[in-house]
Amino acid sequence: MIHEKAPAKINLTLDVLGKRPDGYHEVEMIMTTVDLYDRLTIEGARDGKIVIKSSDRYVPDDRRNLVYQAADLLRRRMGIRDGVTFTLDKRIPVAAGLAGGSSDAAAALRGLNRFWKLGLSLDELAEIGAEIGSDVPFCVYGGTAFATGRGEKIRHLPAPPNCWVILAKPDIGVSTADVYGKFDLSRARHPDITAMEAALRNGDYNGVCRNLGNVLEPVTMEMHREVAMLKDGMERFGADAVLMSGSGPTVFGLVSQEARVARIVNGLNGFCPEVHAVRMLGGRNST
Ligand code: ATP
Questions:
Q1: In contact, 26 and 20? CB cutoff 8 Å
Q2: Which helix (H) or strand (E) holds 16?
Q3: Domain GHMP kinase N-terminal spans what residues (predicted)?
Q4: CATH T-level fold of 2-157
Q5: ipTM reported for the complex, 2 dp
């Protein structure tokens, strides 16, 4: 039996450069992992089956699950016929902009690499992961990185200075396709990625706070006013800086002073059903 953790990610920056001929958007993102995890347990299964047992009834337990797709692809690539059972303990909110499914798929690849003793490197697993989804390669490595292309080209960066991250997910579903569909490049306010990278290299917490930016934030906020209300609330209760992650609807706040965390969490609990106070994760994954 193998256990593997699948951490959530947040976007410190998210920029969209345009639509590509293949239908994907060209993006530039700085992402980092936080210590909110799904937990994956891997065991054998009879008759060559891929079995998924999930703690969350809204997560599919068949081929639509990215964990299934990861196992299926890895088996085909490596010529393996063994069955496998995944027990998926979901802690990351689903369809939240926190890459929960992608991180589960990445954890499945890392875990199966150990379970089947394949000896693949993280680079090889990331290359396989890119076939499953654009965020999977980043999730294979974890840590902090600049992602380009459709998100699958990764350059590693230093982790942000340690601080608290408060995640708040309103009780609404956001379709990533809708958000991208309504995104208007001519009106976008692009984040300053060079300044964010410099802040990370210098361990400059205030610089990280100043340079948070997500071109999709105004698009999602226009569709769902709950997101704007949460951002306002989080700022009012005392977060140092606040941004929506991915295409939303989760909003995260950075907080350097531990004494303020409880106040912000308590304040948000009044009108947001799902609030987590977590830490930044420094290190990258190992195989
Ligand atoms: P991203 O930030 O990469 O856009 P997300 O955090 O917004 O992702 P997910 O939690 O990955 O979204 O879920 C999106 C959809 O993917 C869900 O509605 C679900 O049906 C499907 N899905 C497939 N596999 C999983 C999984 N292992 N965990 C959660 N959702 C999954």
A1: yes
A2: strand 2-19
A3: 65-143
A4: Ribosomal Protein S5; domain 2 (3.30.230)
A5: 0.94
Active site includes 232?
Answer: no
Give residue 281's pLDDT.
87
* Secondary structure class of 283 (helix, strand, coil): coil
Percent of the chain surpassing pLDDT 70: 100
159, pLDDT greater than 90: yes
Token code pair at residue 147: 């992602």
Decide if 2-157 and 164-279 have a common fold: no
Residue nearest to atom 9 of ligand 1 (CA): 95
Cα of 31 from ligand 1 centre, angstroms: 17
Q: What angle do CA 284, 286, 287 make, to 5 degrees?
A: 145
Distance of alpha carbon 75 from alpha carbon 98, whole angstroms: 27
Q: Are strands 213-214 and 2-19 parallel, antiparallel or unpaired?
A: parallel
**Looking at residue 280, what DSSP letter applies?**
B
The CATH class of the 164-279 domain is alpha beta
CA-based nearest residue to 226, from 287, 188, 271 = 271
At residue 208, the pLDDT reads 98
Domain boundaries, the chain: 2-157, 164-279
d(CA 142, CA 285): 6
Which pLDDT value is given to residue 165?
A: 98
Q: How far apart are CA 77 and CA 154, in angstroms?
A: 22
49 is catalytic: no
Between the alpha carbon of residue 32 and those of residues 77, 87, 153, 186, the distances in Å are 29, 25, 15, 28
Judged against a pLDDT cut of 90, whether residue 270 lies above it is answered with no
